[in-house]
Amino acid sequence: MSSEGVQQDGNGGAEDGDRTVRVVLVDDHRMFRTGVQAEIGETERTRVEVVGEAADVDQAITVITATRPEVVLLDVHLPGGGGAEVLRRSATMMADPEKPVRFLALSVSDAAEDVIGVIRGGARGYVTKTITGTDLISAIFRVADGDAVFSPRLAGFVLDAFASTDAPPIDEDLDRLTQREREVLRMIARGYAYKECAKQMFISVKTVESHVSAVLRKLQLSNRNELTRWAAARRLV
After folding, report:
1. What is the DSSP string of 74-105?
2. pTM above 0.70, yes or no
3. Angle CA(158)–CA(4)–CA(69) in degrees, nearest 5?
4. Residue 54 and residue 103: Cα distance in Å, rounded?
5. Calpha distance 83→60 (Å, rounded)
6. Which residues share a beta bridge with 97?
């Protein structure tokens, strides 16, 4: 994890003495969950206690319901309907006046529609996976306190979206793609090599190749250059 630019309090977020924030990690990549656990899970140092993990929507709802954490670190793209579905099914827990469960999106995606979608679904913030461990701990404490936390660039997406009264246009071609395929599409269109995509997304190069093939087929494109032009025309890069 590298610098993200989220404001921090200088002591990793544990500004309330003995207070501990209980957290659930929701991400379909086990290696990434392990890395986050290593960064934030030393409770005596960070005052963050990881009380559960989940790799898909159904697991997430089961774990969140059982543990009722203060904060859920939520990936946007998950098997079973994505982060938006987790938020939809957690609406009652988010609205609990006594012990609300709050959500902080933690994703590799920095696409405007992903950010806006989860914020509209009820998440209290959105940071990308380039965030440092110290900044992430600070963000967790701030979200637990009811604050909104965004990576600086992503905050603009939210302000622009909620300042506008116009609903975003429906793109039937884009809607044919799964969330993961959209993520691969943007990275390839931005010039990432397959190996770089695989590393960023914690998947294999073969899986990246499969996603690219599916995108080309669904959009009726022939090659990477056409894919890049298609994405640029829709301002996805």
Report:
1. E-S--TTTHHHHHHHHTHHHHT-SSS--EEEE
2. no
3. 75
4. 14
5. 10
6. none
What does the DSSP 8-state code read for residue 32?
A: H
Cα–Cα distances (Å) from 149 to 7, 96, 154, in that order, read 9, 20, 10
Distance (Å, whole) CA 138 – CA 140: 5
Q: What is the pLDDT of residues 15-44, one digit of tens each?
A: 455 789 999 999 999 999 999 999 999 999
Local structure of residue 168 (DSSP, 8 states): P
Report whether 229 contacts 218 (CB < 8 A). Answer: no
Separation between Cα atoms, residue 99 and residue 68, nearest integer Å? 8
Asked if residue 22 lies in contact with residue 49, where contact means CB atoms within 8 angstroms, the answer is yes
102 pLDDT higher than 80 = yes
Helices (H), the chain: 30-40, 43-46, 57-67, 82-89, 91-94, 112-121, 133-144, 152-163, 172-175, 179-189, 194-201, 205-219, 224-233
What is the tens place of the pLDDT at every residue in 160-171?
A: 666 654 545 556
